[in-house]
Amino acid sequence: MAFLYKGTDDWSGVKWCVRTVYWHDSYGLNDMLVYGGDYNPYEKPENPLIEFYDMDSLIANTETGDEGHDERIKERGQFVSRYYLDTLNGTDRGTHASAPQFEDNWADGLNLDGGVERWSISGEFYTKAMQAVNADFKEWKENWMLEHEEIEDAKV
């Protein structure tokens, strides 16, 4: 089940939803894709997708008449950008950074879309969001590994 972190970036005043898409969760336009359904080498249970949504945008506050779409938009906001967790943590570069190094990656903030000025997040918000995402991921991963260990034991 996807994890949602919501908060307002004090620097920009924008309310954000940061969504973690775990293994076999749906994502994409109208949630029509399934994470882990492709043969992408980056797609693996230990590397979820992290999505950023602008909850204050005009689109986030406009109803279309499509009940499912409107419900997702109301919960998350307007989709802005998506990254792998390894990329945001800086562990996709062949290094295995420790937690203090993660925070170094977040200190300067992140420009989520160079074409829209408001779609940047401060280092303070980025750090809070990623700490929450990583804490939830740690718990999810422990549970996922236990489930799959039980499945493997049952096969024997």
Category from helices, strands and their pairing: alpha+beta
Fraction of residues in helix: 25-40%
Order of helices and strands: EEEEEHEHHEEH
Strand arrangement in the largest pleated sheet: 1-2-5-6
Largest sheet: 4 strands, antiparallel
Query: Overall mean pLDDT score?
Result: 86
Residue stretches low in confidence (pLDDT < 50, at least 5 long) are none
Broad shape: globular
β content, as a range? 15-25%
Number of helices: 4
Q: Span between N and C termini?
A: 28 Å
Q: Count up the domains.
A: 1
Oligomer: single chain
Q: Roughly how many Å is the radius of gyration? A: 17 Å
Q: Number of DSSP strands?
A: 8
Considering the chains and any ligands shown, give keywords for the structure.
single chain, 156 residues, alpha+beta, four-stranded antiparallel sheet, two-stranded antiparallel ribbon, 4 helices, 8 strands, 36% helix
Can you describe what's shown?
By secondary structure, this protein is of the alpha+beta class. It has one domain. The protein contains four helices and eight strands, in the order E-E-E-E-E-H-E-H-H-E-E-H. Strands 1-2-5-6 form a four-stranded antiparallel sheet. A hairpin with an 8-residue loop joins strand 7 and strand 8. The protein is globular and about 45 Å long.
Summarize the topology.
Elements: E1 3-8, E2 15-21, E3 26-27, E4 33-34, E5 49-54, H1 67-76, E6 78-84, H2 85-89, H3 99-106, E7 110-111, E8 120-121, H4 123-155
Antiparallel strand pairs: 1-2, 2-5, 3-4, 5-6, 7-8
